[in-house]
């Protein structure tokens, strides 16, 4: 179980006491992981393909993202010629919602 010690974003979320989303069930979590794993396929040229993208790209990453490690955002930002990477130190997977 996650607690709010050391995570200001989580502490802010816990202040909301009405109209909260339902807790994610094990069944739903497993379905999500199964769907993601079914979609994800290894593609060795992915980072090289990103070098062809010329438009500006903003990458928001939470430092405490359990689902996607921060190294992935760093690698993507290095491969995009016009990328800006912002890492939020007190955020997880939904950093852009936690730090709107």
From TrEMBL:
Tell me where in this chain the AB hydrolase-1 domain is found.
36-99
One matching Pfam family is Abhydrolase_1
Under the heading InterPro entries, the entry gives:
AB_hydrolase_1, AB_hydrolase_fold
Which SUPFAM superfamilies does the annotation name?
A: alpha/beta-Hydrolases
Q: What is this protein called?
A: AB hydrolase-1 domain-containing protein
């Amino acid at each position: 179980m996650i607690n709010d010690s050391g995570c200001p974003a989580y502490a802010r979320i816990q202040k909301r006491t009405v109209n909260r989303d339902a807790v994610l069930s094990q069944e739903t979590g497993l379905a999500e992981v199964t769907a993601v794993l079914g979609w994800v396929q290894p593609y060795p040229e992915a980072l090289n393909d990103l070098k062809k993208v010329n438009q500006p790209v903003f990458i928001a990453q939470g430092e405490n993202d359990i689902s996607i490690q921060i190294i992935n955002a760093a690698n993507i930002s290095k491969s995009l010629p016009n990328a800006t990477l912002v890492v939020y130190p007190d955020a997880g997977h939904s950093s852009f919602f936690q730090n709107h």
